[in-house]
Structure formats: structure tokens, C-alpha cells
Design a protein that fits this description.
The protein has three domains: 78 residues, no CATH class; 196 residues, Bacterial polysaccharide co-polymerase-like, CATH 3.30.1890; 109 residues. Helices cover 71% and strands 6% of the residues. The two termini are 49 Å apart. It is of the alpha+beta class.
Amino acid sequence: MIVRNPKEARLDVLAYLLVLTGWKRFLILNTVLWTAAAVSIAYLLPKKYEAHTVLMPPKSSSEGLSKIMKGMPLAKLATGSGSLLSAQGGGENLENLYLAILGSRMLDHEVIDSFKLAHVYKFDRKKTYYIEDLEKEFRKHIGFEVADEGTFVLKAEDESPQRAAGIANFMAARLDAIYKRLSVETEHNQRVFLEQRLALIKTDLDSAENRIVEFQKRNHMMDIDEQSKATIEAGTTMEAKYLAAELNLDIDRRVFSPDNPKIKEAEMELAELRRQRDSLLRERKSELLIPYKMAPDLGLQLLRLKRNLKIQETLFEMMMSQYETAKFEEAKNTPTVQVLDVAVPPQKRVSPKRMKIVAACFCLSIFAGIACVSVIEYFRRFREERPEDFAKLRQIRMGLWGWSRRTT
């Protein structure tokens, strides 16, 4: 390991600085020329301005309608997890949908055609160009993001401040129009589906109502509770008469002889009451009375028919509320994008950064001049201190130069 003397190191630095002072004119001239070129380039570069539009975060389009529906029947059922309101509210990420629309090729083409950007970006000077290249160039001048506050920021950059503001405002307006069109198509499809489904449920509801009416007509049942009560009262009366007649017959048999006409009359009356009692149990004696043995089955059948009718009514009410919701959403034409700040023509340019360009070129010119001087001085000392090696290096250079000239 070679340890150099600090004094020798200081002498080398001083010697190097002394060499640079010998090239001071070159270094100054090089720095001045490069800086002047940087200044010229900085002022020749086209100015670019950036306009931006701030949009409020989107809200669910069904918030107002859900407040209205709270007072309606079946509000909880109609606004459940599978309903139309919940599908538009929490399930759908509107932020991602807005970003997808802003990044769509359809919107790119509308902006390019409306502001004639093929001419602005000088693509029309070419004999042929690809639309994909024009789209890529346009995308370089557009940006959108979601700020920390939750607002959308749409940025447009252009050489013209008025055109930059126009592009930003145009894209915000088209965002609202495209989203409303997509929403209307969705609501229309939902409304048509609900309308068809509602017609089927209405048919089932009418059928359930008709079945109940036919059942009541066929079995002469107007009110099963009242009719059952009347049947029980009639049966109780009949049973009391039968027991009283049986008791009277037993008394008469003890008092009168078996051949007494009164005994025969009492036996005939008891037989008739027994027949009527048995008939009341098995057969229908009146349209208002229900036979005892038929009452449970008829009551069960009527209960099932009423239950089915209640189910159809519930489904009909639920589908009707959602159908009215779909009609409301399809018919409304309120803006969905709320513009907080409209883009205005900016006064301050965003590029070129002239001071940064000039400062960077100034620093680079100094380092490039020092590096150039260092290389020149190195080869000069190499030629003086090692002339034989320098001659060989020169021969190698001449050989390579000759080979390159022969190949060309």
C-alpha cells in the first residue's frame, strides 16, 4: 500500500488548478456558449399551461328517494340488500366508474375531434399516422386523480390557456352526460324487468283471488268463523232436544204401558231427532251451516288459499314499490357530477422551467469543460512522458481509422 504525503497531495491539487487556469478562456467560453444555448432553448420551447376542474365526490342517486320511501309500506323489504336502491347505493363504486369514463377511448375521441387536436399536435402534417399514437399523445396532456379531501381533480395541459380550460370543462360535462346515459340504460333495463315481473305477479294475485271466490261459492262459505259458530249453536240445540226427548221417553215408559200411543209418539220423535242430529254431523242441511266433519278440512283449505293470497299481495306491493322507484330513476334528469371549481384559462405557465434549464446547463457546461480539459491534459502528458506508448496508440488509431474508411 502506497501512502502519499499530504503535502504532495496538496501540490497535485494546486498543480491541477494551475492547469485549469491555463484553460480559463476555454472554460469561460464553453460555459457562456452552453448557457446562452440553454437560454435560447428555454425561450424557444413552447409555453404550456395547465387548467384544472375540481369535482365533488359523487353521492348515491337514490338517497333522496330512499327518504321518501321510508314512510311507505314494506319500506325495509323494498330497500333491502337485493333491491334497486341498494344496488345503486353502496354496491357500486362510483369513484372507479368515474375514473373509468374519464379514461375511456370514447371520451378521448370526442375531445380530439371537438378541439381538432390532430392539427394541434401536428399529426396532420404526416402522410399517415395511427390513431393510437394520437391517443397516447393526448393522454400525456391529461391527468385526473382523487385528492385527499375526496374531490376529483381533472387536469388538462396545452399551449393555449383557453384550450386547456376548454378541454377540462368539456371532459367534466361529457362525464356527466355519459354517466347519465349509462344510468338511464341501467334504469330502463331494470324498469322493463320489474314491469314484466310485476305483470306475472299480478296474474298470480288475480288467480289467488279467483280461487278463494270459487272456493267460497262452491262450499257456500262467506265467513267460516261465523258459520262455524252458527253450526255449533245449532248442534248444541239439537243435542239438547235429543237428550230431553230421550229423558221424556224414559219417564213415559215408566208411567205408561208399552202399547200406549204416547209411547209410540215419543219414540218416533226421538228417532227423528236422532236422524237430524246424525245428518247435521255428516250432511249439509243449510247453506249457512257447515257439517262438523267437513269444517276442519274446509277451514284448512281456506286458510291455505288466504295464505297464498297474502304472499301474492306482499310480493305485489314489494315489486310495485321497486317498479315505481325504477320509473322515478329513469325519468329524472338531474346532474350527477357536481363541479366545485370550473376550469379557467391559467395565467402562469407550468413549462418550460426556464431557470431550472439554464441552471442545469450552466452546471453541466462547467463539469463538461473540466472533463474535456482533463482528457486533453492527460493525453498531452502521456505523449510527453511516454512517447513510445503514445506512438503505438497513434498507430492503433490510424489502423482503426483506416479500417473504418475501408468498410465505408
